[in-house]
Amino acid sequence: MRKVTTLLGLLAAFVVALLLVPVGTAGASPVRSVNTGASNVEIAPNGESITVTLRDGKFVPNQAANEVRVVNARGQVTETVPLTLKSANGQVVHVASALSADGKSAKFTALDRQPVAKKKSKRMTKEQAYMKMMYQLNKDWPCAAPYVIGGLIIGFFVIVGWIIGGLIGAYIGYTTCNHGAAWRAAVNWWNTP
Questions:
Q1: Can you list the alpha helix ranges (DSSP code H) found in the chain?
Q2: Of 9, 114, 115, 169, which residue is 20 to 30 A from 23 by alpha carbon distance?
Q3: How far is the C-alpha of 100 from the C-alpha of 57, rounded, in Å?
Q4: How confident is the prediction along the chain (193 residues), in pLDDT tens digits per residue?
Q5: Which of these, 144, 168, 143, lies nearest to 155 by C-alpha position?
């Protein structure tokens, strides 16, 4: 029974990896191999398949029940591997199996792997964008204040004027402080319908 749990657990982990890991990752790692004592499990570098090699017993297909059985030397079924699995989010995954001629190894591959849909974030309303902008402006004010005051003072003594000098100082201060988070929040508010 311990072998059953180990093999089914590895197969379940494989299906979860197929559902969550993006397809075709660049610079894939080499084949990962796990030795469970009763079997050796290899996961392909692209995460598309898993190969299980048994030390004792062999794999036998059971088309009627859509499963692969593992039988021991006496011909007794020690465990079964279903070829239709249901993930935690309710998605049904069909798995293809390719057995070796002697039945000592089996390669399992997911047939209908679908990417997990990402939740669409709700677009902010104009009021929410305004509240976020005001929060960020207040948060960054201690850092931006010297720039604004400096712009006001320089603008007062130059022909440009203190209002334009203060605006220039605010722009410099809010784009400099906190990597421009307040400026981005203001632009986001301006562009929100």
A1: 2-20, 126-157, 162-176, 181-191
A2: 9
A3: 13
A4: 445 445 555 455 454 444 434 444 444 444 455 555 566 566 666 667 777 777 777 777 877 767 878 887 787 877 777 777 776 777 777 777 777 888 778 887 777 655 556 677 788 899 999 999 999 999 999 999 999 888 888 888 876 678 888 888 888 898 988 888 998 999 999 998 8
A5: 168
- CA-nearest of 93, 85, 97 to 60 is 97
Q: How far apart are CA 37 and CA 3, in angstroms?
A: 9
- CA dist., res. 44 & res. 28, Å (int): 9
Nearest to 53 by CA among 15, 103, 101: 103
- CA pair distance 183, 104, nearest whole angstrom: 64
d(CA 159, CA 147): 19
Amino acid in the structure at residue 16: V
> What order do you get walking across the sheet with 92-99 strand by strand?
32-35, 39-43, 49-54, 105-110, 92-99, 84-86
